[in-house]
């Protein structure tokens, strides 16, 4: 019978480096932060500097006493749909509170994913009760605060302050002396705390026939801002634009 050749011994120095210490397979934290960085839910705003908004009243909800609720379509100037905004509120508040009604706005992208939520508690107008000023909380994703919009008391001109999640002042919005949109567009300039302009929101005049017959059902307005703003800042300016529409042009 043929005898098997013995297995040669392996020199000890071959494994010397392997037994010097435990081998760690952990990835450094800095590399982990790079590997698991997720895109922001608001990335649709990263390359835009202007948004066109169409408001439509959900007529069936009004007719069947399910509440007065709006739906907004947010598009780019080339008519690409960016967001659909759905209003939610208690069924009775729209019939009695009109534009001051408390509500939540659910902002959904073109895939139907909710990317932002806007919460507005009830508050009376500043000219009636100065202690009750408008306040919006903006979340993205829902549950994570990214900023607030706060109305400031002013005797004549509308005044709003936009803050980030840490309470730092980002922008001021100073409205015109006359907010009525009659034979003209109405602009609300936006600027940084140092006075540098960053954009404006505009309520468009669409003609006398529209104002008399269709304004309660459908309306158009828009917002323009600097392209290099962060997506969170653009989202806050969009939320402020919706608040201004409710305050002055929702009937």
UniProtKB/TrEMBL annotation:
Protein name as it appears in the record: Phospholipid scramblase
Any one Gene Ontology molecular-function term assigned to this protein's record: phospholipid scramblase activity
Keywords tagged on the record: Calcium, Lipoprotein, Palmitate
The UniProt record lists the keyword Calcium: yes
Function, as annotated: May mediate accelerated ATP-independent bidirectional transbilayer migration of phospholipids upon binding calcium ions that results in a loss of phospholipid asymmetry in the plasma membrane.
Cofactor(s) the record lists: Ca(2+)
Superkingdom assignment: Eukaryota
Similarity comment: family membership: Belongs to the phospholipid scramblase family.
InterPro entries on file: Scramblase
Source taxonomy: Eukaryota, Metazoa, Ecdysozoa, Arthropoda, Hexapoda
CC terms in the record's Gene Ontology section: plasma membrane
